[in-house]
Amino acid sequence: MSTQPHDGLSRILLVGTPLFHRDMRWAQLTRQGFAFTPVTKRHCTLDSDSSPNVQAIVYQVGARASDTLDFLEAVATRQSDLCVILVGHNQKPDMVAQFLRKGAFDYVNWPGSLSRLTDSLNCGLRNRQTFLEVRNLSGDLATANQSLARERDTLKQFNQRLAGLNQLTQALARSLKPEDVVQALFTGVPALTGAELIGLVRTNPEHVWTWSQDGDQEREQTLTTQLLGRLGRSPQRVTSGATTLRLVGARPMPLLKSEDAILAHPQPEAHAMHDIPLAIGPHAIGVLHVQRGGSAPFTEDEQQLLATIGTSLSLTLRNADAHQDLQDMALRDPLTGVFNRRALDEPLMRELKAGLRYGAPACLMILDLDYFKTVNDRLGHRAGDLVLRELASLMTDTVRDIDTVGRYGGEEFAIVLPHTSIEQAQPLAERLRNLIEAHAFDVEDGTVRVTASIGIAEVCSPAIASVEDWVNAADTALYDAKAQGRNRVVVHAPTPLAPVQAATLCIAA
Prior knowledge:
- The chain is α/β, with parallel strands linked by helices and about 500 residues long.
- The chain is about 45% helix and about 20% strand.
- The chain has helices spanning about 20, 25-30, 65-75, 95-100, 115-135, 140-175, 180-195, 215-230, 300-330, 340-360, 370-380, 380-400, 420-440, 465-485; strands at about 10-15, 35-40, 55-60, 85-90, 105-110, 195-205, 205-210, 270-280, 285-295, 360-370, 405-410, 410-420, 440-445, 445-450, 450-460, 490, 505-509.
């Protein structure tokens, strides 16, 4: 390749390795009116004596981006009007943007096509000529370049925010439980908006979740009260139905117990606050509150971003509710509304593991109505269904919230009692048996009185090593209760208990 320029050629300094200099593309470009002066990076001094009348530089980008940045810095220090075109392997967009901000005119991926190199060189040289013509306007041009850099940064921030929004909406869409939805929300919104305090209140069911960057319980309590006030509710009226979600590392915060604890609202001038109504069609379902430090309000773009999050959040909460309804339908007995037999497997396995591993006490009660077939035969299955539904409600109202009531089949029910010893379970079973015996069950033609037999087995027993063992033990105790005359409570024991007289069924008019 000829290295001696002659009149009419565009003079270009080719900085790179000898292998780079020997590429056939430069010879092809020479025939198009370019004159290349090859030089290695070590011998590239940018002196006018060694490279006279050079109009542009084609610079081979190496493995170290810092070398290229240093070269661009050196060109800029000389206030050179040279057009610098970088040629190298694929770089990350951020690094390319940094090269451009440092003064490079273009970045061409190598090996590149001849047309791409030609277009870049022609465009770069025209750009240099224009620059020379407006040299006296360099101050305005510098301002324009700074503005362009800011616009690039703004575009970068916009792209980052858009990517963050996409990640958040995907995380929300994957969440099938309200707690998971809120966890994703409280993780994503601060990263997108710089929020320091977030509150979410929903109307049906009534729940409140709060989060603060510094775990400030006082601020969260204040926000909880404000959000509940929007529902027309006082804190003590919804304490049982509202919850507070805390992220990892934060302290748990109970809801306010007294209206005397309502604190003053934050000063509007000290915070930027924005509320996003949550709705499904015309139906309002809650409010998302976002707050950050500083007096600058949320920009229009940020408000639009939060509105988009609010729309996604509303749909996600509705989907989570629908999923929960389907889960409940799959795990609930359709007649009585208590858990079905399959749903009992989870609490049974959980308490069995806790008992075997840690010795945690737990009991299983199996309850069976005595002579229930008589109710169905004499009054019909509809009357029997009414009795079973009322019995399930009676049991649910009698046990604790942490206990699990389920229909095991027919007129047989099971109750899992966590953290309960035999000494605690037996009085509860006796009280439940007495309540059933004394209760008048409403049917269409009057009332029915029935009795129940109950078997109890404790998980911490040498004979119990599986859920099946535990159920069999409680079943054996129930069988013993039936054999001893019914209408009684029997605790699983290695030796059978003595039989007693039988119980009777009374049908009231």
